[in-house]
Every structure is written in structure tokens, then in C-alpha cells.
Amino acid sequence: MTSDLTETGSVSEVPAQPMDKIVPLRRLVSWLIDRLLFLVAGAIVLYVIGKLGSPGPEFVSFDVYHFFAIQMPLTLLITYLMWFGVMAKFGPPGRRLTGTDVRRRRGGDAGWRRKVTRAAAKFLLHHTLIGFVIDALFILRDRAERRSIPDRIAGTVIARRRWS
Asked: What share of the chain is helix, strand, coil (3-state, %, to 5)?
């Protein structure tokens, strides 16, 4: 249920909109957009870190230890910090472009606590291929609401964005 003001100024409860059939496709496209942007940001950060650490254009040697012990962890740390900054300020770019939003299951804005809980569960679950596949199967299996495992943990649902 969401709250709307009536003409008299009182608050009335309006049921949350039912999930449309296109949500799984929108979720996939949103996820792909986010992953592509994260990959591009990581590649840019890795390029900059590599340029800062190389002695010059004539240097063509590749040090595997330096790459995996220093450059990759530093790149991941910087990219994740940038990504979380963008997410906190603007929300996921893929979700904004596909017109979807995280809502409470019963309707209304999810709030930052539910969104952080959902993001943390998604972060932990999606770092393994099996976790990602199981989560995708949950979305496809749940025909009524198309909720994932992180959605169930946080009590949220993905719905069309309400423009105000």
C-alpha cells in the first residue's frame, strides 16, 4: 500500500501496482548496463594506475606479481569506492535508464536501510557464478512478483519508476 493525499487533504492507502511482465527483461538490461559501466570504470582506473607506475613509453615488460598484488587490488578498491559513491548519490545507472526502482513489497519507497540490505545481499550472492544463477532462477520462478533472493531478504520488489 502506498499513501496518497485525497482532495480533502487526508491520506488514503492505494495498493502497490502489480508487477508487469517486462520486469525480468528490464532487470537483465539494467544489470548489463551496470556491469558494463563498472567494467569501463575499472579499465580506466587500471589504465591510470598502470601509467602512473610505468617508467615510460619504452618500458614494455609486464610484471605479473606487480599486476596481481598491487594494480588489481588497488583498481578494485578505487573502482568500488567510485561505484558506491555514484550509487549513493544517483542510484544505479542501469535502473535509472530502464525506468525501474526498488520499492517496498507492500508499496512505497524502500528507504536507505532496505536498499543497503538488498545491495549487501546482492554483493555477497553475485560474487559466485552459482549464486548469480540461483538468484536468476528465483526471479524467473516467482511469476507474481519476480523477486530475487536479495529482494526477499530486504522485503523489496523491483517496479516501474514513479516519476514525481
From this structure: 60, 10, 30
Q: What is the DSSP string of 55-103?
A: --TT-----HHHIIIIIHHHHHHHHHHHHHHHHHHH--HHHHHHTEEEE
Structural domain that includes position 137: 2-160
Q: How many domains does the chain have?
A: 1
Three-state secondary-structure class, residue 146: coil
| Residue 49 main-chain phi, psi, to 5 deg | -65, -40
Please, which pLDDT band fits residue 59 given cuts at 50, 70 and 90?
Answer: low
Q: Which three cell numbers stand for residue 137?
A: 532462477
Residue 13 one-letter amino acid: E
User: Any idea how long the chain is?
Assistant: 164
**Contact in structure between 150 and 116 (CB atoms under 8 Å):** no
pLDDT band at 155, cuts 50/70/90? Answer: very high
What are 103-129's pLDDT values in tens digits? 898 888 888 899 889 988 988 888 888
Looking at the DSSP bridge assignments, the partners of residue 11 are 5
